[in-house]
Amino acid sequence: MSKSIEELKTLTTQIRRDILRMVHAVNSGHPGGSLGCTEFFTALYGKVMNYKLPFTMEGKNEDHFYLSNGHISPVFYSTLARFGFFPVEELSTFRKLDSRLQGHPTTHEGLPGIRIASGSLGQGLSVALGVAQGKKLDDDQSLVYSLHGDGELQEGQIWEALMYASAKKVDNIISTIDYNGRQIDGDTDDVLSLGNLHAKLEAFGWIVLEEKMVMILKL
Ligand SMILES: [Mg+2]
What is the per-residue pLDDT across 101-152, written as a single tens digit (0 to 9) for each? Predict the structure, then answer.
């Protein structure tokens, strides 16, 4: 999948429109992180990742993406629909009874593009690492991507996973942190400060790139 910058800009605007419509229609959901991560999603699905449609759960020899901060499901669902994983019309069922588009992504509805349930924070990096190691065992050269909130980094499991990745040299994973300084209860600095996050991540053996308010980790 490789779209032009102009196509990506148009899609970004459309996805932002979808997010507002979806959340407003049911007066429920998380628009902030969704709107803040829209460019990340359009770039990931429109330029960066190699994947095939129709979607398969196994996705052998394809890049995988794991959303760890599952509450930003509006941007994930809209991106998947706009990139052809399922019909755009289904976005209007967001957070409604019997919908495949629940507030937090799950797998049992069989929505194409969703490989893990998320919403309970802190688990996505561990899952992504397991998949990355599985790809190595399968001699699959593709990459695994994950996205995390910065408030989510207060979960202990994240740090276990960060430590595990470098110790076991899981070098086929690229993780991104939406480093917006905010979480549901306020500023991350007030709730539980992350301190010098860049230095901490490097100390755990990751290569850290900072792009505006996004932090990208690569082993
Ligand atoms: Mg945040």
Answer: 999 999 998 999 999 999 999 999 999 999 999 999 999 999 999 999 999 9
Task: State in Å: Cα 69 to ligand 1 middle.
Answer: 9
CA of 187 to the centre of ligand 1 (A): 8
Q: Are 47 and 81 in contact (CB under 8 A)?
A: no
Q: Ligand 1 centroid to 183 CA: how many Å? A: 5
Distance 196 CA to ligand 1 centre (A): 16
CB 50 within 8 A of CB 62: yes
Residues near 139 by Cβ (< 8 Å), separated by ≥ 6?
Answer: none
Measured CA to CA, the distance from residue 82 to residue 199 in angstroms comes to 37
Distance 54 CA to ligand 1 centre (A): 32
- Specify the pTM: 0.95
Neighbouring residues of 96: CB distance < 8 A, sequence distance ≥ 6 = 26
Alpha-carbon separation of residue 195 from 20, 87, 150, 153, 189 (angstroms):
33, 43, 12, 11, 8
